[in-house]
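SEQUENCE-TO-STRUCTURE ENTRY
===========================

Backbone structure tokens: a row of integers, each naming the local backbone shape at its residue.

Task: work out the structure tokens from the sequence, keeping to the layout shown below.
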Amino acid sequence: MLSGLPYLKNGGVAIYSSRITMNISLRQLRVFVAVAEALSFTRAGEALGLPQSSVSTQLRELEEALGLRLFDRHTRMLRLTEAGAEILPLARKTLADLDAVVGSSTELKTLGRGRVSIAASSVQAALVVPRVMRAFAERHPGIKVELFDVSQDDVLSMVHSGAVDFGLGTAFRSHQELGMRPLWHESFYAVLPEGHPLAAKREVAWRELLNEPLIGPRKGNPVRTVLDFALASEGLVLNLHHEASLPLTIAGMVEGGLGIGILTSSMRQLAESFQLQLRPIHRPSIQREVVLVLHTGRSLSPAAKQFSDALIDSARTRSSSSTGTGAAAAGGRNGRR
């Protein structure tokens, strides 16, 4: 008699059959199911918190909308008609499906479950995001966080295509569909092999590095773009002997004796794991900006918004705790030598 799944329409349910279309309220369906289960207007009203007169009215309006009698009414007995018995399982399924929709939306809204996907450049993925992921998982165990460790270019393309909710990387030139949310700034450091003469200094000027065999990011990398632009404004040109896509490779080349590496302050842990020395570079002082990469045409899900807020809070903590510590730490290690 009734075919297809009901759906919400104008606050009610539109049920389609081969011949008719009608609007039925959810309250009417709930009243029908309650009366069918209790076989009593009084008990159904008590279960729903409705007066008996309202139960009778709702049921009568449902029967009029359907053009069917759903119950045979006798003085002391209430019994489902054949039509009522046929419609009852459909009504139960309709209410269960709608309750599931509401329950799912509530879970998503209250962060009971969900999914967050992030693209981050390799070092940010290794050293920054995992700590936030752990704290987030403790607060929201029902949300799955997926992290893609990729190149900076891939961060932008994955956010643009919608493959991930947002990205983490270096500030970039304006993009028609991508926006940036600043997180923190990182200074540039010279990464020196043990025993190098420049390691005896507290800090190094860019001009002191120009005649050294330098190792740094490839041309086209946003970090390299930041460097080239800032140095060009001072009349300096960075000539690299070796170029690499990954900071790990740069640190490995320095450890292998190929030259002096150029990395940012977030790579300190990586460089020190190779027993390398780091010295801040100044004159001029150059910084790269780490940003949250967002698609301007898409809003974040509640879970993704919550995780991005956690990253922003982490960035504030990171910025306040690292202010002024870079050169001091380098100088402290130098003083102990």
Remarks:
- Residues 1-21, 323-337 have pLDDT under 50 and may be disordered.
- The chain is about 45% helix and 25% strand.
- The longest strand covers residues 178-192.
- Residues 162 and 295 are 8 Å apart (CA to CA).
